[in-house]
Every structure is written in structure tokens, then in C-alpha cells.
Write a structure and sequence with these properties.
mainly alpha; 3 domains; 11 helices; 2 strands; 61% helix
Length: 275
Amino acid sequence: MGHDARLIPAQFVKPLVKSNKNDFLDAEAIAEAVDRENMHFVPIKTDDQLDLQALHRVRERLVSRRTSVINPVRAFLLERGITFRKGPAMLRRQMPEILENADEQRSTRIRGLLAMLWQEWKELERQIESLNSAIEGTRRDDAACQRLQQIPGVGPLIASAVVAAIGNGAAFRKGRDFSAWLGLIPKQYSTGGKAKLLGISKRGNPYLRKMFIHGGRAAVLRLRREGTLIGKGMDGLEARAPRNVLIVAMANKLARITWAVRSSGESYRPAALAA
């Protein structure tokens, strides 16, 4: 009908709803919110972005299901005195031997339950690998994802998730706005002119925030720090802060760099220390 349709985050409209909630008051709040000069709007995603976002959502659901299968397997074995190291790798390697070994500590009934869970586990692994291949194929066909993967700590999952979530990054004026949307900046509780900063706000997209924190952890553990400004900053923060603080700070920096690369359309150029 010729209207200019816009999407407004519900959290910005809710404070404008007067008294009780009904359709009339909701429409009045939306009409008031859309006329505000400082209102933030959500860009409408393309079909390709929605398809890529759907891949990530289904993969995340399968990973959650895989974890819910692994936990009872470990619990059933722990009740019978069988323990494994943290992480699923060792348990996955030993599961065939556990099912085939005729041990009197494991009855036929529990052996059947473990076999059923093991089959479900393998099926989930197959589905997750299939989605990983689909995401990897999308990444190879997208020049933006290839540029983002030049950033240390940013892999195919993070690059494709960023492209699916923010497109070209035009919804944010600067990297700090993108980092704030991810919830990676300190939460503020200031009054009377006294600034008080708390932990990270954890607002925005929790999936993308988790991906960046994983990327920050990989960068902290594996990135070569000699001769780079980012490595010097990591060394200075590591000397005065716990490891988890360093990882979140690195995730914050990676998010800002990612937005800069995505919005500018240029390749990542690491800054080196002056001779």
C-alpha cells in the first residue's frame, strides 16, 4: 500500500505502554516510538540471511540435544564406577569397548539403554556434521565470510553467523554499538554523577555472544602475540586480570574488529608494533 515498513525492538516500545496492556495502547505506544528521533530500528533480513540463520539455529538445537544425550551416559557409567575425563572425546572413543565388554558390573538392561543412547549420539553427530558442511559451503561462496575469517579467532561459524545476523553492519554506527548489542560491554548502574560499571550486560544475541567468547578463548590460547599491538594488549591485561576476564575482553575486541571489516568491505590488516 506504499507504506515504509520498519521493525522496532519490543524492548524500546514497552516503556511507552501506558497503564494496562491492550491493542489500542500497544498501537499508541508504537506510534509514539516510531516518531522519536533517537529510535533504533531493526533492518529487515534478506532470504539468504534467514536461510543461513536457520542453519545456525538448527545446529545449535542439535548440539544441545547431543549434550543432553551425553550427560545421562556419563551419569549411568559413573554410578557403576566408570569415569572419564572432561569432554566427550574420550567417552566417544571408549563407548564401543564399553558396550562390547561383558562386565558383571553392567546388566543386560543398562547395556541396552547405553546402546540406544549411543546410536542416538551417532545420529546427532552425523546431522551436526551435515550442517557444518552446509555452513562451510555457504562460507566458501560468500566473499564477506572469507574476509571475516582473516581475523584471528573468527572461524566459519562466527563469520557466517555475523553475516546472517547483521548483514552489512549498517544498523550500527560503530564497533562499540555492535559489541553493546552482543552484551560484551560492562553493564552500567550510575547515579548522582558517579559512574559504576558491573560485569558484562549479556544483552542482545546470546548465540553470537557465545560464539565470540569461544573465538576469544581460541585467540588467547593460540594467537601469536609477538610483534603485534593486540598481542601486547593481551599480555598487559593478562598480568593484572584473571584469564576469563581476558577472554571476554578479547571477544569484545574481536567483535569490534569484525564489525569494522564487515562494514568497510576491506580485508583485515593487523597492526604491528613500531620498530
